[in-house]
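ok, trying the design again with the full structure, not the truncated one.
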């Protein structure tokens, strides 16, 4: 499981850097300041959670089942939160109906909060 967590963290981080460069160099010409700012929020939160996964992989005091739960919450949260932000920031270039994903961003954010809370509670309950 720890190998999967590290690999996923590395992949999420790599994609965040690619999308950040894409936004800063290519999309800068086509997006408004506000849209570019929105896009960058998605990149930032994606990178934060790549580091979160790396940290998670170093924990030896967390049960495998809990690790897996936190991992799944983070991955789903990043896909929903950052993914929907990328789509919303670039909506002028797609034919996608954004009414379908209106709840994706808050749901993704909620999953990320739950992942952090689960880590917090798990470590808090440990003695020492």
């Amino acid at each position: 499981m720890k190998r999967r967590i590290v690999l996923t963290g590395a992949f999420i981080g790599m994609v965040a850097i690619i999308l950040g460069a894409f936004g800063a160099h290519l999309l800068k010409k086509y997006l408004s300041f506000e849209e570019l700012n929105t896009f960058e929020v998605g990149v930032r939160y994606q990178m934060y959670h790549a580091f979160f996964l790396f940290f998670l992989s170093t924990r030896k005091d967390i049960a495998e089942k809990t690790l897996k739960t936190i991992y799944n919450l983070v991955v789903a949260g990043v896909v929903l939160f950052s993914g929907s932000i990328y789509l919303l920031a670039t909506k002028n270039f797609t034919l996608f109906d954004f009414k379908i994903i209106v709840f994706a961003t808050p749901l993704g954010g909620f999953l990320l909060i739950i992942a952090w809370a689960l880590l917090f509670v798990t470590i808090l309950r440990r003695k020492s």
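Keeping the full-length input from now on. The chain has a mean pLDDT of 92.
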